Amino acid sequence: MAMDQTVINGKGKIRSTLKGEFYTSPVIFDLEKKEIFSKSWLFVGYEYEVADPGQYLTTKVQGENILIVRGKDHVLRAFLNACRHRGATLCSESSGKTGIIRCPYHSWSYGLDGSLRGVPKSSECHEELVNNDTYGLEEVHLQTWHGMIWLNFSENPESLEQQLDTQIMERFGELETFARYQIPTLRVAHSKEYDVKANWKIIVENFQECYHCSAIHPELTAALPEFKSGIGTQNQVGLGASFNENLEAFSISGKGNRPMLKGLLPEDDRLYFGMTIIPHVFINLTPDHVITHRIIPISEDRSIVICDWLFDPEEMAKPDFDPMDAVELFHRVNEQDFEACQWCQENMGSRAYKNGGILVPIEHHVSKFYDYVLESIGMKDA
Questions:
Q1: What is the pLDDT of residues 290-318, one digit of tens each?
Q2: What is the pTM (predicted TM-score) of this model?
Q3: How many CB atoms lie within 10 A of CB 299?
Q4: Are 274 and 153 in contact (CB under 8 A)?
Q5: Is 3.90.380.10 the CATH classification of the domain at 5-38+161-376?
């Protein structure tokens, strides 16, 4: 199942992609869930959404219902959103605020720190159950990074910084440029969910290369003319793509009068930076807003992608604030990309793709992602 040796050795003008079965096999998909998504830090939301004690979010990650809640001690924690009594979902709303977590089924109650606090009509075993660590909610590793909430399901996860800061260093050569966008101070002004009939890896591959940009992204290449060359900047250390000289802003009309984000420097103006955070996040930086994508693998041939557009809350509070001109540009890019991903997924099971496809030289950097996948699932030397 290994790739062609030109990929492993990094030689040759033409390299192979992964074989077709890597995009169609339920066995390989299960391996990826176990060895990649269950061991990596996964982006699930924003810290500002749970800023106050008692505020909570719910989500579903790796087939598990998750409850993220800010404790009375101001500590942010994540738990499996399942009652330890009979497994009922504790919080069914997507967000809210509470002083105690109460099961709707039999009214078992838990503190915001996950400890079991109350078991109605259980005098015979009340002391054995209540405040016993054994029967509290099952906790999931949680850390925050640049205002974003990340979860990890492994018993002993690698440090968050090792996974994320390392990739920022690879993109910029330092950490300061990314930090200047001050993502913790921004707020989501618009969010959209896309149901993509394609394997998660096809979506990552697509974002990592710009060979396709001139063919399917007329709006993007009009805004960022250098993308017409097929050599995107998202894989070139420290480089951003310059706006078309006729554009005022990164928007579908090219119009805009929002100031730059507060932490930016003059040299950050009129630049777009794109980056992939393996395994499942894309971050796009523009002078007046930030766009995030997170891929949620559903099956070997289906993924959900959540895209958020974040702006300065002071700008959002202005009566004439309207994000949709900016939103529309990347929304069109998303639709074009995801349609292309589906074109590919349709033929991953074809005998034409049995041994994989081809990477031409300007796509060679994608092979690093293939190496990551193969090594993670133990197939590097298969």
A1: 999 999 999 999 999 999 999 999 999 99
A2: 0.93
A3: 11
A4: no
A5: yes
